[in-house]
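pipeline/complex-builder :: batch 7 item 3
reading input block
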Amino acid sequence: MGKTVTTTAMRLVLVSAALLAGLALGPVAPRATAQDIQVEGPLAGAPAVIGLRIYREMRFQIQLQGTMTLNDEFSRAILAGGQLMFHPTDWLGIGVWGGYALGNIDTALTDQVAERGQTNDVNVLSLPRPGGFTDQIGRLQWIAAPQLQFIPLRGKLGIFEKLFIDADFYLLGGIGFIGLEERADADKEAIFDRCASADLAMKITCLTPTQGERESRVAIAPTFGAGLSLYMGDWVAMTIEWRALPFAWNTSGTDESGSSKGDFPDGKIDSNDQLAHFNHMFSLGFAFYLPTEPGLSHMDEDE
Amino acid sequence: MRLRSEANVSARALRLAWIAAALCCALPQTSAAQDMSFDLNEAEAAEAEQPAEGEKPAEGEAAAEGEAGAEASAEGGGDVLAELTAETGTAEAEDEATGPREQEVAEEIYAVQRMYVLRNGRFELAPSLAMTVNDQYVSHPALAVGLNYWVTNVLAVGASFLWYQGVESESDLNFSVRRSARLAVPITEYQLGAHLNFTYVPIYGKFSMFNDSIFQWDSYLVGGVGMMRTRPVAVVDPAVRSFEFDWRVAFNAGIGIRVFLTKYLTVFGEFRDYIYLEKLENLEVSLGADREEESTWIDENATLTNNMSVHLGVTLFFPFGFEYRYPK
């Protein structure tokens, strides 16, 4: 499996997406908007909902969240954080979200590399000692993101026909500042100049200290996501949120730059080894609203 | 408001009570799916369970607890119809004393909303694209199609079919780990999957978009059992080893959300975990003549594998139309 398979797969996915889009859009009559309800008579032109609880307009939201990164290659971050947001309208919010990593959990792949990885002359910089692999992997430290929240859908749901709760669906977008800790830059040849390196064992001895050397930096990346708020009362809601932060970083702490056809490895750990990753995460939280009383929509019309 | 005689009022009230009781009994419990309003009353009624006397009952509750409501009506306890019925006795006594006279009556009529879509007895065809979300080494996208028959409005039996071969691709991570750590991670290739499953709808709701359009949606649980055809990809000793596809028994469980665009067309997203015992390539390479021995190529221990997938697609209900039991 290689580039050909990937190209075929992409083609198939695109064709299938086009077919599905055709199926989805084809049978829908042009006039049929949401569920083709055509209201006539005295209710024509009336708002869809009267007496709707306005949970967000002119209210502050203070949210406490627990976040876990998803689909990580080597290390999973568990973050505690929160969000402060103000909503000038019921469908728009502006604020800041952030989280601090309380801990990092190594994945099974990290354990496998530490237990079964092998070092030779070619990868001696990437993996001086397999047992020290956990010291060289990149770890996420904190995230802060000024962001906008867009709330297009507001509704309610019933669970087992017994429990009815208000809900809204939101999209978010902003700029993320991500605090990272990665393996520090290292130049194999420069180290070998200072350290006699005749055989592999000596090379390993020379390079082992670089495995645990760390450097911190702040990456800047777009962030976007979506979430669901489930209102448990007038001023409190539970939130379920997914968020992506695509940016490049060296998750493995290995020497990745260079082509396999000639110049790999380049013998340096540096910014060229930072590979693009679609970092994404899942959050659960509780949001508190101030002031505590929500508004009601179109009550004049109702009366 | 209209003027009418008290005798007419009591007769009409009785008729309404009988019709309301009949409707409540006839409607299935699931009719509550479309019985929610967005107003304040419903949420408060749901919290309080029992509406206050004289207060308009929540529509959802009216349907879900229709039988109880009918009983209450019959006993004259609490609701408007019962109160109208109760007035009859007083009115009859007055009639005897003073004779019939006209009276102004404020009448309220409560209607039970129809379900937006009836599913029972209909088929649902669901083509979709599936993408793996938990395998960092090989992605297993698939072209999928499902067919469900709805036994009731909330329960369906069905089958689904997924085709993987030719769409899969190996990730860069696998290559990178092999290159940088000299570690071979055993991977597998899928050909197809065929599954039988039940679908149950415990959660339903509606969303309004900018207080303009209303979308009905539901959330469902799905689960079942089926077969998958998979094989290991030779990464440890590819010069010698090659593998054929073989059948594995697979269980599946998932949760999804379906949004109705029309009465026969929906879009859906589904998270489903396909769970099976996988046979992986043996990480040990035998020396000598045993290297060619096929029985040494597969790891003796099967590995419990979770292929977590997200499906995105549309569903088409047919027949397209259906008839409600009662006229509007």
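note: Residues 1-6, 23-34 of chain A have pLDDT under 50 and may be disordered.
queue -> next item
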